[in-house]
Amino acid sequence: MHKLVVLYPKPADPDHFRDYYVANHLPLVAQMPGLLAYRYSFDVAAAPGQTSYFAIFEADFADAAAMTASRESPQGQQVAADVANYATGGAVVIHYPVQDGVV
Fold first, then answer.
1. How many domains does the chain contain in total?
2. Which strands form 37-41's sheet, in the order they lie side by side?
3. Record's Pfam families (predicted)?
4. Is 102 among the domain residues?
């Protein structure tokens, strides 16, 4: 599995961010090809002294190739272009292959 994570610093208008994100952005995300699942939260905490974020998003793809194809698709490009409509604080995008742990 390959995970895509987006960290959002605090926007200029938090209410607009929440409303737009849920009503407009996430429906676009749901149309991305190859997307297996996604999760998000507006309740992000950080350890004392560390940078905090306003929101987090994570998406699961079968592998890096599936994620890349999804992001380069017309739907993925539409999602990327839409970020400017709500994320006035910017966005930090990271991705990585997921390794299973042993309990």
1. 1
2. 37-41, 55-61, 2-8, 92-97
3. EthD
4. no
